[in-house]
Design brief:
Blueprint lengths: L1 H11 L7 H7 L14 H4 L5 H4 L7 E2 L3 E2 L5 E4 L3 E7 L4 E4 L5 E4 L2 E11 L5 E2 L6 E9 L5 E10 L4 H8 L8 E7 L11 E6 L10 E6 L3 E3 L1 H10 L16 E3 L1
Amino acid sequence: MHRRHIIKGFMALGACPVCTAAARAASTHWEYTGSLGPEHWADLDKKNFVCSTGTQQSPIDITGAVKADMPRVTIDWHKDGGKIANNGHTIQINMPEGSTLTRADRVYELVQFHFHAPSEHHVSGKSFPMEGHFVHKDTKSNTLGVLGVFLTPGATNPCFARLAAAFPARPGEETVVDAIDPNGLLPATLGYWTYEGSLTTPPCTENVEWMLAMEPVEVDAADIKRFTSLFPLNARPIRSPNRRFILGRD
């Protein structure tokens, strides 16, 4: 019940449930390295206790996945105006209402998406240069559904290039963009892995259904560098799977 109240509070604030609001909920400054880094998050604030005591923490290494007859993921994201913010931990794009992800009888509304470098999740021990997280809220509960997409250097991706050109350089800065089309960051196919996990930032709440696209998306190496020049390392280390089932669908 406690974690549901936390998530409900995030949504009432109308902010990012994974980054900005999570940082506020922790009430204490945190970082990705040193004495304020991931191994110390639980010590920084009692609200972060799950960061060290939880049994369904994220990210994890996707290995030993079981192939399953799972429902397809259906995306209905709209091209719309949005805000790009540098919140001190990542670049986050806050989206207006109306875009959804559907999986079986569950409908999630896209709240925001943001990036990590290197990737937070690994696949059979391999990491990727970046990972995008598309954060959704279940329309009938306080559960979050996050679609993760791995980004690798290659051909220019017009969507990511447009975002990269507008990345705010300083924490707290925000840029308004007239038309953002997050569909441009989706892979050609939507085979995915899924498992039950947590937020990857404080307070590490274990109320997230993770869906990770199997096919990476190519983006220009120069655009990756634009992100890493601002955030050289903003990825939580791999956590133990603790015998959780990882399911996959091609």
